[in-house]
Amino acid sequence: MAKKSRPAPPSTPKVAVAPASPDGPNRKVRKEEARRQRESLQRKAARRKFYRWGIVALIVVVAAGVGTAVALNQTSSKNPSASQSPPTLEGMQHTQAPWTSGTLGLKQRLQAIGLPVLSQEALAFHIHMLLQVYVDGKAVPVPQGVGIDAVQQFITVLHTHDATGIIHVESPTQTNYTLGQFFDVWGVPFSSSTLGAYSNTGDKQIRVFLNGKPYTGDPTGLVLKQHELIAVTYGTTKQLPNPIPKTYSGTISQSCAPGC
């Protein structure tokens, strides 16, 4: 008996599938993600660069500060007064002339300016010079006893024995002492622009003369030398003494003649 043939199964219809669009949703997602990653990396790189330059700048600032501190320390070591203000001295006479011998605060001033407090005169180095002071054309006495405290019984290397203006330098060592130091001992503020309560204004000026000639340097640094005459004046040019004192004379002093 002949076998019956089975009918062929119905064929599955083919469906055409369009290729994925290059601009489809998946690609857009990937592109957006890639963009975000790039921006994140750029931000990280910018932060690293900022931090790196910030650290460099900080190192430079610190190094500059250290260098400045070292330089100032070296300068201060070589010249202690370069970075320090002048000491505030006790008992200074910020008043008009005439002035006292300046006993008030003398010991404290000596300690501040580094001059010795002696129990008696030291004559290893002994010289004399004459100081004359004028204010508004009038002579102002340099009083007796500058640099000497008779109550506490001490004396210093710069002093006066009478009111003639002769300064005695009597020191245990040969040292250069200055006019500024003598005024500090005296307790009278003094500089190129100040004398006691007086200060430069207009033609009224502090003028200093050494042996009759104008002294153009810093008068506080004028070194005291044997038998020189120093004239310190305040006032106008018309009020200057005429003639300007220029010759030392030890004979004016009764307390040290003939040794002056």
Model description:
The chain has 260 residues and is α+β, with helices and mostly antiparallel strands. The chain has two domains: 26-84; 106-252, no CATH class. The protein has helices at 25-78, 106-113, 179-186; strands spanning 125-135, 138-140, 148-149, 154-155, 158-159, 166-171, 194-195, 198-199, 205-210, 213-214, 229-235. A hairpin with a 2-residue loop joins strand 1 (125-135) and strand 2. The radius of gyration is 45 Å and the shape is elongated. Residues 65-73 and 75-85 have low confidence and may be disordered.
Please trace the helix and strand order, writing H or E for each element.
HHEEEEEEHEEEEE
**Which spans have pLDDT < 50 for at least 5 consecutive residues?**
65-73, 75-85
Distance between the termini: 172 Å
Number of domains: 2
CA radius of gyration is: 45 Å
Roughly what percent helix? 25-40%
Could you give the topology of this structure?
Blueprint (H helix, E strand, L loop, with lengths): L24 H54 L27 H8 L11 E11 L2 E3 L7 E2 L4 E2 L2 E2 L6 E6 L7 H8 L7 E2 L2 E2 L5 E6 L2 E2 L14 E7 L25
Parallel strand pairs: 1-11
Antiparallel strand pairs: 1-2, 1-6, 3-4, 5-6, 7-8, 9-10, 9-11
Short description:
This protein is of the alpha+beta class and 260 residues long.
Features:
2 domains, elongated, alpha+beta, 17% strand, 3 helices, 260 residues, 7-stranded mixed β-sheet
